[in-house]
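Our platform keeps sequence and structure together, in a single record for each protein. This encoding replaces a full spatial description with a residue-level series of whole-number codes. We quote a single record here, exactly as it is kept in our systems:
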Amino acid sequence: METTSLTSTQGGEWLIKESAASETFISEDFNEEQKMVKEMCLQFLHSEVIPVMDKIDKQEPGLMQSLLDKAGEQGLLGTAVPEELNGLGKDFITSTLVNEGLGGGNSFSVALAAHTGIGTLPILYFGSEAQKQKYIPKLATGEWKGAYGLTEPNSGSDALSAKTTAALSADGKYYLLNGQKCWITNGGFADVYTVFAKIDGDKFSCFIVERGFEGFTQGQEEHKMGIKGSSTVQLYFQDCKVPVENLLGEIGKGHIIAFNILNIGRLKLCAATLGGSKAALETTVQYAKAREQFKTAIANFGAIKHKLAASAIKIFASESALYRTAKWIDDKENELIHSAKPFNEALLGAAEEYAVECAILKVNGSETLDYVVDEGVQIHGGNGFSDEYAISRAYRDSRINRIFEGTNEINRLLIVDMILKRAMKGKLNLLGPATAIAKELMSIPEFGNDDETAFTKERKMIINFKKCILMVAGAAVQKLMMNLQSEEEIIMNIADMAIETFVAESALLRVEKLTALGNNVSVQSDMLQTLLYDTADNISKYAKEAVNSFASGDEQRMMLLGIKRFTKTESFNSKDARRRIADKLIEAERFAW
């Protein structure tokens, strides 16, 4: 494996090369304006949203719209929109921070993310100049609310199998839409909808539909397990008359709009779940300090400290991976703009470059939040099962995130599929490193290094995790060939190895950079060491499951020995490390790193 230090310039390149900590963006690098934007989001949340959470869940008429209006007045709906279209024109990292800062708003966060993401971006990035001038300024301020219609009763993950049709009217002035869409967030009150349909039954295309268009109606509000305050309805089209000028993009190119917007949406969902995770952990740690059993706060019990620390570690790692990737996208966007790419093509191209990482973030962020709220309910005990406590709402509302923006199963399959396709196209040189690792398995393993410096051991661990991925993935591809696509369990094992490794490496780079800058990283170091210790065990498990699924005999034995070598760890007292993390967390009463 090549280990030349560099900052990744291509998506997936981290798998075969090391990254330099000094060139890695971390959340401690936010500039003053970005910090102010995040603080403004948190203030908005605590002053406008949290006090009316119960009313939001009951869908008090007009409340969600009024909150979006207030967010629009503060510029929070147009962060990523250019100034000439009534937006703030901020960079990608700042717009990501808005999603994190407002991520603790439960149903409100969902409504806002749907409006600013899938409700606005398709028109911003794919609309004609006339379409952008007509719709974006009003979407950026919140005067108009946006929604997105892709899913149908019989087409969820398989979006291209949609049955909604569009046909040109006899006079050529309209497309007549027929069909229905389901699970439409903001659908009950939106003014503008991005809707997908097949022209002449086979050309998957996209349209801008306005509330009030003839032939367009909506169903009743859905009764959901969580995000109860989020408007979710079905949309019905019966010869719905959509002016021909409302065709969005090119005929038959709707999939380009749908899939490109998803890349950005996946990263932004990770940001929102990060904000939700921090809010849930803060609620939980404060409860643990206040709740007494056996004449002491339950926060003093080792079992509770373990849960608090484990949540903090997952949040720290997810945050590290999120902003590392956001900076890559921001840099790539600027690079493309400087090469004369227009605004819309620059960001979409940048997000597509890092589509693998966006999928990783979506899975990791949603599962981190699920873990944090689940342990939060457990720490609350019986009270956690009561609607009187905020953690109950957080638990219910979290579950949808593993389904939004492509299910986590689909994203796991995509991670491996996209990496392999890039390798086949020559964009990623996986063959060389994989071949070298196969030869390495026949050699005598190296032991010890008297010249080790700070983080040498940790970097070697990450390198070995990557070798384990390449070994398993390379053997699976060679053994199964075209049949690999039907072996989804093996693919998901490999995806989980990649997710764990990318997130762990991101945390390592963050701690390494903070150390070089002279920061006190005692808590961060404990989080990193515990994370790496756990990651080694997890990768070993996933790798063995995969290898045992397709290998046998000498090949199997050799690979199992390789897994043992690549996931080897030194003895580490993770119990004491977790207690130190928990003690700092309890002292701060929130996630403070």
Residues 254-290 form the longest helix (37 residues). Residues 44 and 499 are 33 Å apart (CA to CA).
